[in-house]
Design a protein that fits this description.
The protein has 2 domains: 82 residues, Ribosomal Protein L15, Chain: K, domain 2, CATH 3.100.10.20; 240 residues, Four Helix Bundle (Hemerythrin (Met), subunit A) (Up-down Bundle). The chain has 10 helices and 12 strands. The strands form 4 sheets. Strands 1-2-6-7-8 form a 5-stranded mixed beta sheet, sandwiched between helices. Helix 3 packs antiparallel against helix 4. The longest helix has 29 residues.
């Protein structure tokens, strides 16, 4: 259980929520483990298969406290609110701003600032920890380029220029990805990004990690009442979760890329965890997916300090927290949208 500002996140397995006076009463095996006042709560998010009493649900509806339900993997299941006024206003603002070039540019600058900052942090950590095992000249060249482009973002005047900077930075970053793979080099290598389908083991891991992250970001956005299909940087396209892809940008380096590199370099995943199809597509086996899910869940349980909120949270709650901050920005509760900038 973790209270972040005025949203209560319940992640304890088999925890039942009931009403006790003016409090949320958290019960495990019919014993109360905590009580949280309903005053000033704007939302409750539960993860797993916890139950909630009808009395507490009715009280939350009366107080206009949103109830969001997710499964144990963070996938959005349902949201219950007393009135939809807040969501309508929030989404109307989202739709209006998504059609405004100025608002799109400001928000997209935040996403890419977070992405470049986190990418730089990842590369600097690798340089510090593995200086004797990697090509420092190649790494330093990319670090220098990304640092300069991070500074240039402040002066970008249009979306085309912003996308150009993001695209070139991503291209240079992936050019040195093979240098970051330190173990199992014969089986795990990276020449270029291939997506549909992934053509090697490393790309298969990246695609799977990005897919999981996209689902979790989508769940976070739906949980706060935002439309994951209407973005600010990624444009509208049928079936594309554009806002999820937007928010993912800042989280890819720290939640997905770092995770995949750890899987390979710590030998937590092996070559026989993959199968190659007739069309040369490389996919995880059932056993490989089991390993991936288990380790992904373990990563989500690790505690970090959120640099903006200054509170301890689990990695797995980060997409939900950033979604909450985006909603607050659209409601004018924040002057700017604060991207997650890793300092771990």
């Amino acid at each position: 259980m973790k209270k972040l500002q005025n949203v209560l996140y319940v992640t304890i397995p088999d925890c039942y929520l009931s009403l006790s006076g003016g409090n949320v009463n958290l019960l495990v095996e019919q014993k109360s483990i905590a009580k949280v006042p309903l005053n000033n709560l704007e939302g409750i998010c539960t993860f797993g298969y916890q139950g909630i009493s009808p009395a507490l649900m009715e009280e939350c509806l009366e107080r206009k406290i949103g109830l969001s339900f997710f499964n144990q993997y963070g996938r959005f299941r349902a949201r219950v609110v007393g009135t939809i006024d807040g969501n309508v206003i929030l989404r109307k603002t989202q739709y209006r701003w998504s059609d405004d070039e100025h608002h799109c540019l400001i928000i997209a600058q935040s996403f890419i600032t977070g992405k470049l900052y986190n990418t730089l942090h990842l590369l600097k950590q690798f340089r510090k920890s593995h200086a004797m095992r990697i090509d420092l000249n190649a790494l330093d060249e990319v670090i220098g380029y990304l640092r300069d482009r991070l500074s240039d973002l402040k002066n970008v005047s249009n979306m085309e220029s912003l996308r150009g900077i993001e695209g070139e930075c991503a291209s240079r970053y992936f050019r040195i990805w093979d240098h970051l793979i330190l173990q199992q080099k014969d089986s795990f290598y990276f020449h270029s990004r291939s997506r549909r389908p992934p053509m090697d083991r490393t790309n298969a891991l990246l695609s799977f990690a990005y897919s999981l992250l996209a689902n979790e970001v989508t769940s976070g956005l739906e949980g706060v009442g935002l439309d994951p299909f209407v973005g600010f940087m990624h444009r509208d396209r049928p079936g594309r979760r554009s806002l999820s892809l937007d928010v993912m940008e800042e989280l890819r380096p720290v939640m997905a890329d770092r995770f995949v590199l750890n899987l390979i370099n710590r030998k937590q995943i092996q070559p026989d965890d993959f199968i190659v199809k007739e069309n040369s597509a490389c996919l995880l086996t059932n056993n490989g997916r089991k390993k991936f899910f288990q380790l992904w869940q373990e990563q989500k349980e690790v505690m970090i300090e959120h640099p903006f909120l200054k509170e301890k949270i689990k990695w797995g709650l980060l997409p939900h927290v950033q979604s909450l901050l985006m909603a607050r920005y659209l409601r004018h509760d924040l002057d700017v949208y604060p991207p997650f900038m890793w300092r771990g």
